[in-house]
Design brief:
mainly alpha, 65% helix
Length: 137
């Protein structure tokens, strides 16, 4: 598998031991479980707001509050949904190609244990991520 930039990874050895990969898998699965629980809470909140709506309420403030609460719950659920997608992608990379898990998708350098321990779904090393963020500004 070549990184997104097209350059082949420079490192040929596995960046992490089997024990470290198991640690990352556990971290990703725990985070995934937490996110799914949060999404469930947001779904419940959206359902509760929908149930509380009074079809006979004509006051604009009540209607505005209901709309704002629905929008807020939707935005939180959407954010968690995107995060869940990133976690699932990281698990897919870990399962499909454990030899290249933990290598930067741009330069092919190892991300490092500390970075992946803090952000187990990371795809880029700090240097490449900083370049990406600078390019967006």
């Amino acid at each position: 598998m070549t990184p997104a930039g097209g350059a082949a990874p420079r490192k040929t050895a596995k960046p992490f031991s089997k024990k470290e990969l198991e640690h990352f898998e556990k971290r990703l699965l725990e985070e995934r479980k937490r996110v799914l629980k949060e999404i469930g809470k947001h779904d419940e909140a959206m359902a509760a707001v929908s149930e509380q709506e009074n079809p006979y309420s004509f006051h604009m403030a009540d209607q505005g509050t209901d709309a704002m609460e629905r929008e807020k719950a939707f935005l939180f659920a959407s954010k968690e949904g995107r995060f869940l997608w990133h976690l699932n992608q990281a698990l897919r990379r870990l399962y499909q190609s454990p030899d290249t898990f933990g290598l930067c998708h741009t330069c092919g350098e190892p991300l490092g244990f500390d970075r992946l321990d803090a952000l187990p779904h990371a795809r880029y090393c700090m240097t490449c991520k900083q370049k990406e963020e600078d390019g967006k500004r």
